[in-house]
Specification:
Elements: H1 12-26, H2 29-53, E1 58-59, H3 73-79, E2 83-84, H4 105-120, H5 124-138, H6 141-160
């Protein structure tokens, strides 16, 4: 399949990806292997750097901790598996979790001022929507279920209650007796 068979992409990111694919297809095999080797090395460097950050909270499996006593250290060093220790006190160093930043009083006050200004510029409908979301978020599961049940009961009542101007009013002269054979 040639590049003439496929219509050219209109998105600039897609155009760049297509150029990169074409360039990679044109590369000799040796150059592709070198590129992949560099990519793997960079990945390993990043992996080691990430492990060094969390050294205080992580450790490799200890041979003495193994219940069956077999030597698993060579396997663990080859695969670079890491096990979290239960005594880890600083959760911010755990790899893959975002670190929660402590804010200063000035930062907190500036955030509150921004929120007040944003809230003041909202329409009444937007404010009410925010209040409704907060109320729903703060409700207990039983309260949420009770609210759903009350909505359901109200809808059922409306379905079964006729309006005074409705054409579906009960005919007082209707005889309910079934005369069909």
């Amino acid at each position: 399949m040639t590049s003439n068979d496929i219509p050219p992409p209109t998105d600039p990111f897609e155009q760049r990806r297509q150029r990169d694919r074409d360039r990679y297809a044109q590369m000799p095999t040796q150059q592709k292997e070198e590129l992949l080797k560099k990519r793997r090395e960079k990945y390993q460097q990043n992996k080691v750097a990430a492990v060094k950050v969390g050294v205080e909270c992580h450790q490799l499996l200890d041979l003495d901790m193994a219940s069956n006593g077999e030597n698993i250290a060579p396997k663990m060093h080859q695969s670079n598996n890491i096990v979290k220790t239960p005594l880890c006190k600083n959760e911010s160093l755990v790899i893959g979790k975002k670190q929660r930043q402590e804010l200063t009083d000035e930062q907190i006050e500036s955030r509150r001022a921004r929120d007040r200004a944003r809230y003041a510029n909202m329409t009444p409908k937007q404010r009410q929507a925010i209040r409704d979301r907060q109320n729903a978020r703060n409700m207990k599961p039983e309260q949420k279920q009770a609210k759903r049940d009350s909505y359901k009961a109200r809808r059922e009542m409306r379905r079964n209650t006729l309006h005074k101007d409705s054409i579906a009013m009960v005919n007082p002269f209707y005889n309910q007796m079934d005369d069909s054979p």
